[in-house]
Write a structure and sequence with these properties.
Length: 711
């Protein structure tokens, strides 16, 4: 939203022609029932935004009115309550007297939900970037419940992009960046392809003004060149010869097609710069036209796509074919009028979430938005970018078809088929070859999932490899469950130790006193209390203070403890729960490790770590950490580096390692022949006890080596 200003001198004020706007909207809503709520909202918004002006000098009411008009004119959304919400979407945020409750009382809970979903997070302390993230997650959460929220926000963003010229350059760039990273890809997800193209074109010209201007000149030359006209003439003559009526037009791809999102740059050239759009009367004519096109221009093998029989997740339908004509690749898109309109404006005509009817593509959109709004364990920009990519086809052995984002993995496919299949996925068989869960599935491949009998313990890096929101969300849930189990055990142990130090009996959290004890922290479950302590969300000092005041008249039997840290013993190296700090590389097989409680797990440092000593915290925020050596399994293959040693000494040391240790690979690192080269040794051990024996053995061998544990 462009910033609201009440008394500015920057630009002359331009009043809004409300009478003309009413005439235009009456025409759009001519046959729409129950319009009263829209016109009432228009009166309300006009009064609420009275004497508010945009940077451009326009009356502020221009903006919400334009958002509503974009929705009805360019998105085919004519539901009066949705349009009313579009008119009111800035009132709660920018008008002090208007609250969500005021909107709800006058226009109903449905309109209120959409308006509140569009409203920014306010009164957030901290930097602007954090506030922006919280606002976006709030919008995503609201849109997960009511997709109309995102429809309003997309129309809102499009109008802001159309009027960016009046804003300071810095703000223009920020809005353009957000549009390219978030809103334009989401328009793609929603199937609003006209909106997607315009958003990209406007935003990219702000991000890359010089390069964008050059690309636009090149695009203009292509559009006006003779080749496009020649191709159109050839198609029209071919269709006429078969007595097939069609509307044939050329579309030269805009800046949006030249943007390389992963590398954040504008390309000089693209593979298919021009598209030919062919609109016919019915589905049968689509297939006839495809045959005529293939007869006229020889198609590129394996490039014909049938999105009529197999629609995209957005509901997009059409036939695609590609041909190289005089050295230039063309894409032919063949559709009916209904298909063409849906491709341009989406599938939201006469739709509302109030009906309770959810099409499959809407369920997937809501699933995506729920992931974006509820989980901060990964970048929502990355998830949006992956969701907006082109699709690949994949089949189950029974022939069920699934469309997935480009570069989706076996695990993405498994979760798309069924959540339980995803959680037990060990890999897959593709064309008779077994591959892992991180293998990128081929387009058109038949995927046979190989399952375990119990849930698989996935590595944390898998969440970065997966492309679908469902896979990322399910992995994040699994990681959170593993982390909370460890946090609960840590919290329970620390609470008992600290209460013992203060002299408090632990029966405070048992029997009749349990409920009032939990009420002190606004909790209903003692396990949640343990988790919060184990994650550092509840500090032990504050917990003891509350207990002392509530149960012991402000006096503890023992003096406030100082000195020694509480102690915990772990049986896991799971990186989801335990983070071995890269600043000091602590070794669980050795003593002297300390942990800092965080919501992302226990952060482990060596007690002599300089960086750790600089952290400002209380005694009870730190724990003395040790591991049960035999009970703690080491799942990953380990690696150590031996510097400047002769072959005889290295082989002697490795040959006498403990029996339970297995040497997997020995490699000389020095490229040229030297007398004392460096070595890389890969080995595996079953647990920390054996690892400790290996390291002690190497210490006795007097070899100079470096070892950092891989969890």
């Amino acid at each position: 939203m462009t910033k609201v200003t009440r008394h500015q001198k920057e630009a002359p004020r331009i009043p809004f022609d409300m009478n003309e706007y009413r005439k235009v909207m009456k025409d759009f809503l001519r046959n729409v029932p129950d319009q009263d709520v829209f016109w009432d909202a228009l009166d309300f918004a006009e009064e609420a935004h009275d004497n508010q002006w945009r940077k451009s000098g326009d009356a502020y009411i221009l903006h919400p009115c334009s958002v509503a008009r974009i929705m009805v004119e360019e998105m085919d959304i004519s539901h009066p309550e949705i349009l009313a919400a579009a008119l009111l979407h800035d009132t709660v945020e920018d008008v002090e007297e208007v609250t969500g409750e005021v909107v709800g009382e006058r226009f109903g809970s449905y309109v209120q939900a959409i308006v509140e979903g569009c409203t920014k997070v306010t009164h957030v302390s901290g930097d602007k970037q954090l506030a922006s993230k919280r606002t976006h997650r709030k919008i995503f959460s609201g849109a997960a419940r009511r997709p109309e929220v995102m429809l309003v926000k997309l129309a809102d963003r499009l109008h802001n992009l159309r009027t960016l010229y009046a804003l300071p350059k810095k703000k223009q760039t920020r809005i353009a960046d957000e549009s390219v990273d978030i809103y334009a890809p989401l328009a793609t997800v929603f199937g609003l392809f006209n909106m997607k193209r315009e958003m990209y074109n406007l935003a990219l010209l702000v991000k890359y003004p010089k390069k964008g201007a050059k690309r636009n000149n090149y695009i203009k030359q292509l559009r006006n060149g003779p080749l496009g006209s020649k191709v159109l003439l050839g198609i029209r003559e071919a269709l006429w010869s078969y007595e097939l009526t069609a509307d044939v037009s050329l579309r030269t791809k805009g800046l949006w097609a030249y943007y390389d999102a992963p590398n954040h740059l504008l390309l000089n050239r693209i593979e298919t710069p021009m598209e030919v759009l062919i609109v016919v009367k019915d589905v049968h004519s689509c297939y006839r036209t495809l045959g005529i096109i293939n007869e006229t221009f020889r198609p590129i093998p394996r490039t014909i796509r049938d999105f009529i029989a197999n629609p995209k997740p957005t509901g997009y339908q059409g036939l695609h074919a590609r041909a190289i004509i005089e050295g230039t690749k063309f894409l032919f898109k063949i559709r009916t009028e209904t298909m063409a309109r849906t491709a341009q404006r989406g599938r939201f005509r006469n739709w509302t979430s109030k009906s309770g009817v959810k099409e499959d593509f809407l369920k997937e959109i809501q699933e995506l938005l729920e992931v974006l709004g509820s989980n901060d364990s990964f970048s929502y920009r990355d998830v949006i970018a992956a969701s907006g990519k082109k699709e690949v086809y994949a089949y189950t052995p029974r022939g069920d078809l699934f469309l997935l984002p480009y570069r989706s993995t076996v695990l993405d496919f498994a979760f798309r088929v069924h959540t339980e299949i995803g959680h037990t996925c060990l890999g897959a068989s593709i064309r008779g070859t077994r591959v892992g869960p991180d293998h990128v599935i081929p387009d058109g491949g038949i995927i046979k999932i190989i399952r375990d009998t119990k849930p698989v313990r996935f590595e944390q890096d898998m969440i970065k490899v997966c492309q679908t929101p469902r896979a990322r969300a399910e992995l994040a849930k699994g990681f959170k469950k593993r982390r909370r189990k460890v946090s609960r055990d840590i919290g329970a142990s620390l609470l008992r130790q600290e209460m013992l130090r203060y002299g408090f009996p632990f029966d405070v959290f048992e029997g009749a006193s349990l409920v009032p004890a939990l009420e002190l922290f606004r909790l209903e479950d003692v396990n949640e209390l343990y988790c919060r302590i184990g994650e550092g969300k509840l500090r032990l000092y504050e917990v003891m203070l509350q207990l002392k005041e509530a149960f012991f008249d402000g006096v503890s039997p023992h003096p406030t403890p100082t000195g020694l840290f509480n102690q915990i013993q772990l049986t896991t190296l799971d990186p989801v729960c335990v983070k071995l700090s890269s600043c000091c590389h602590p070794n669980p097989a050795s003593k002297g490790n300390l942990g800092l409680l965080t919501k992302l797990g226990l952060s482990i440092h060596h007690k002599d770590c300089g960086r750790f000593k600089d952290i400002q915290c209380r005694r009870d925020d730190i724990v003395d950490v040790s591991w049960d050596l035999k009970a703690t399994k080491v799942h990953r293959q380990q690696e150590l580096r031996i510097s400047t040693a002769i072959r005889k000494d290295v082989m002697a040391a490795l040959g006498s390692l403990p029996e339970a240790a297995e040497v997997c690979n020995v490699q000389i690192l020095t490229a040229h022949s030297v007398q004392r080269p460096s070595w890389r040794v890969s080995f595996s051990v079953p647990d920390i006890a054996v690892l400790q024996k290996v390291l002690r053995h190497l210490d006795r061998s007097r070899l100079s080596y470096t070892f950092f544990l891989k969890c």
